[in-house]
Amino acid sequence: MTKPITVLDLQHMREQGKPITMLTAYDYPTAQLADEAGVPILLVGDSLGMVVLGYDSTVPVTLDDMIHHGRAVVRGAKRAHVVVDMPFGSYQTGWQDALRNATRIMQETGCGSVKLEGGVRSAETVQRLVEAGIPVMGHIGLTPQSVNAFGGFRVQGKTPRDAVHLIGDAKALAEAGAYAIVLELVPTALAHMITQRVSVPTIGIGAGPFCSGQVQVVHDLLGIYPTAPKHARRFAELGSATRDAIIEYRTAVEAGAFPTANESFYMDEHALDLIRQMAPSAEQDMSEAERVLREVEDAPRSASTSDTPTTVD
Asked: Which residues are catalytic?
């Protein structure tokens, strides 16, 4: 049996200069396929709110949502390390609430770690969780749970002041014990500087090629939706392929071309004859047929019972 990937394995990958691939997964079949494809980290991201649940942002996603989807992903992943996002409101109210909610996630999903957003402001929470034995992945740059404060999905760290703050955020998370840090929508040069200045893996999304690894939303790379963010590459066009398949299915049903004999099941002719004899007409109920059927079923059992002598040990 293949040994599951741990946070120590991910640190070794960084030290060896081996790029780390991370991919979102929100259900069992996606997790299974990604695991079979050799992806070392699967992220049950709160992005499920937008790509699976149809919300405009990640803010409405609940702790129960994350646990529900996290369980499914863990069941599908045999080797990959599974990290589950802590949703909005589950840790912003203090480290005590964060510890309680992170414990729920770990216990109820069986995942390997949790992820939360924020740099310096989240450092104490990260430290408390790590001290309690919960591995934590950090997330800075564009943090989707704070999109309302940012005024939209915008690149972060473009000014000297903002860049210095992001470097400080990354250092604070690493010092607090985060085993990795996601850098989202950060200029390439700044992401490179951060990667050089922290001792843990950086995972980029819209942060250029110089991070320790990359993460993408699975729906973006599979082309599920008509458009994708600038930082995403469409490695397939499954959205249009799926739509075409559904159209073909509907057309076949409407034309009477599905199902055919190949998709149908048959029964024993003797059983079919008995059904024809017992089946009532449209105006009759099923009571007479059920009575006859009981007689047929009970007859062998009664005969067998009467022929069997009673013994007392």
From this structure: 184
CA distance 84 to 190: 26
For β-strands 20-24 and 81-85, DSSP reports them as unpaired
Ordered by where they begin, the domains of the chain are 7-234 (3.20.20.60), 266-305 (no CATH)
Which conformational region is residue 269 in: left (phi greater than 0), alpha (psi within -120 to 50 degrees), or beta? Answer: alpha
Torsion angle defined by CA atoms of residues 286, 292, 294 and 297, in that order, rounded to the nearest 10 degrees: -130
Positive or negative torsion for Cα 133, 108, 214, 164:
negative
Tens-of-pLDDT digits for all 313 residues of the chain? 579 999 999 999 999 999 999 999 999 999 999 999 999 999 999 999 999 999 999 999 999 999 999 999 999 999 999 999 999 999 999 999 999 999 999 999 999 999 999 999 999 999 999 999 999 999 999 988 876 555 566 889 999 999 999 999 999 999 999 999 999 999 999 999 999 999 999 999 999 999 999 999 999 999 999 999 999 999 999 999 999 999 999 999 999 999 999 999 998 988 888 888 877 666 666 666 666 666 666 765 544 444 444 444 4
Give the Cα separation of 217 and 43 in Å (integer): 9
CB atoms within 10 A of CB 310: 5
- How many angstroms separate the CA atoms of 118 and 195, rounded? 17
- Dist. CA 75–CA 7, nearest whole Å: 19
